[in-house]
Amino acid sequence: MAEKKLFNTVSQSLTNEQKEKLEDIITLQHSSESNKTILGWLKEPPGHPSPETFLKVIERLEYIRGMELETVQINHLHRNRLLQLSRLGSRYEPYAFRDFQENKRYSILTVYLLHLNQDLTDKAFEIHDRQILSLLSKGRKAQEEIQKLNGKKLNEKVIHFTNIGQALIKAKQEKLDVFEVLESVIEWNSFVSSVEEAQELARPADYDCLDLLQKRFYSLRKYTPTLLRVLEFHSTKANEPLLQAVEIIRGMNESGKRKVPDDSPVDFISKRWKKHLYENDGTTINRHYYEMAVLTELREHVRAGDVSIVGSRQYRDFEEYLFSEFTWNQTKENTRLSVSLSFEDYITERTSSLNERLKWLTANSNKLDGVSLDKGKLSLARLEKDVPEEAKKFSASLYQMLPRIKLTDLLMDIAYITGFHEQFTHASNNRKPDKEETIIIMAALLGMGMNIGVSKMAEATPGLTYKQLANVSQWRMYEDAMNKAQAVLVNFHHKLQLSSYWGDGTTSSSDGMRMQLGVSSLHADANPHYGTGKGATIYRFTSDQFSSYYTKIIHTNSRDAIHVLDGLLHHETDLNIEEHYTDTAGYTDQIFGLTHLLGFKFAPRIRDLADSKLFTIDKASEYPKLEAILRGQINTKVIKENYEDVLRLAHSIREGTVSASLIMGKLGSYSRQNSLAIALREMGRIEKTIFILNYISDESLRRKIQRGLNKGEAMNGLARAIFFGKQGELRERTIQHQLQRASALNIIINAISIWNTLHLTKAVEYQKQSGSFNEELLHHMSPLGWEHINLLGEYHFNSEKVVSLDSLRPLKLS
């Protein structure tokens, strides 16, 4: 009844013209896509970020805007209900919409298109973001090519001027005539020519590449006039010079004028770009460089949240993501943050904690094994492996007792034992899967989790069709269902007695597994550290009990650190994570600050510890033995001035108003290095210093971190063994479909971990009954072994049918 009323309300706020357009998108074919309806065309994921892709995205955006759906009354609907309707709209095919009652059809389509309008706006600007990065990357590559081409000449000049320099040094030392000595090495006219040649070969003193971008301007012009015409930008500041510049360029595009007005604002442009802003007369603004500079600054300010885009979800005003000051003041007494609301109490407590560690280290610095504080450099001896050989043999003996099993059987076993399959309720009616549908779900999970795809899985599974697997993939294996199924598995594993030998579920680690992308995708990044191809990263969280409790897809070039809190705060399991480990890429000063505010102990393994900067709140001179490694003093003034806003930011993250990764990405932008970001950084430096002091003082802590990270690496090893299809490449264009693959893989990993733990428990019981048994060795085991699991399936060969050249199979001609 409530749903019918909702549909009636939305439908009644639509005009007849809007309803006709909604009918058109599910019945008419798009002019450029003869085999697709307009709705199918609108749903197409963008491919590789390029000017052409940008224009295609804008074409779809303008089509939706032309329907003027923003006038429809949906403000009274709860955000989660709108999201649910939008997800339904994204799954239904045009023929399904045509079967619906009118009000239902119009309502779901309307909500979906309004959400798609936001997505397309975000995608359009993301393409611009990538184009600016590509512009700068091409400039760097062009500079590298110049250096390669001129390498021999440059080397000759270095040798040449080395000889001249040595001659001049000799003249100075022996008080000889400088010019006579110089001409003994090179004739004067040749020297002048050589200097001129060197000037031609020289790159800018700052070795920047912006002078090489003049010709690249025209690649931006393929789409930037449309960008400035279609997207509407707002600023938090009145009369923002950047937006004035945007309006000037927009006006020039519309009028056809080529000359940039002399009074155009330039103060907001960075020094790097200003060097190239004017022509040789020093007053005329270079149109190409002005426009490139403005478009680059626009990218940075939008990413930081200082400039918002109307109709966007990802690029709103920074303050819109947070609790308002009024709401914060009304609710802060009940906040779940782990620090005092009083700055004075906070800084007193942190000063005491930091000073306590500094005093302890001062008194014990000469007693620490494997730690050196020589000449202002911190160094640690490499940790020896702490897994005894006896434990490896013990583990092998237990695994030898495990029965061999096919992965298909293993998955069905764990489904019946845990009931995780019941979480795959149908997205439209919440119906749980029956027995037949459960088998189809398991097949789809294996197809996606092993990366062979549901089409190949259907071919390899007698009795199942591609249509069946595709249907459950679309309607039952959505993000919420996958997360719930994963939580059931993790919770079940958490309660097993053997799991407690590996940990109590309060510590975890996270690590990225880099994957090549075999298709053009808006989210594909190139990273020279991981080969020549483009890719994405599966960022996985592993508990101390060897369960994988959270996963997400991130950009390969994204800093792991900004995603750490997403997993710690938004997993849906019973695990109570208190301490978390990452590798070096998983930390920043600001993450140290936020994790402390949110009540987590953050413990990264820091590479190049010797270069880490430690800070004091009091003067470093109070700790003379440590003064060489204490290289900075905390700015408590900026913390005090911004303390309320920092707490409001942390509270907003804790309560789910904004994801940590989104807001941390904005805080990390150079243009948002304002007092709030600086205050959070300073608070993080306190926590980082305390952590490093604990890290070098406590070998057991270092070992605990090492063990935690090793568990994550072992998890990645199993993941790669399972995800063998298509050479381990992701072939999905959208993050949603990539995440579906990653989540299916996670479910399989957790199922294997449970199956192994259950059977290892039986093996342990047998060992106990058989005689001598060292219970301590159980702590060094892992439930992630897979040698006994058949990951490849079974192959049947028909020897009865004899085939000759005269009885080849017929061709498919229809």
From TrEMBL:
UniProt keyword list: DNA recombination, DNA-binding, Transposition
KW Protein biosynthesis (keyword) present: no
Entry-linked NCBIfam families: transpos_Tn3 (NF033527)
Domain Tn3 transposase DDE: 409-795
InterPro entries assigned: Tn3-like_transpos, Tn3_Tnp_DDE_dom
Name of protein: TnpA transposase
Species whose genome carries this gene: Bacillus cereus
Pfam families xref list: DDE_Tnp_Tn3
Domain of life: Bacteria
GO BP, sorted A to Z: DNA transposition
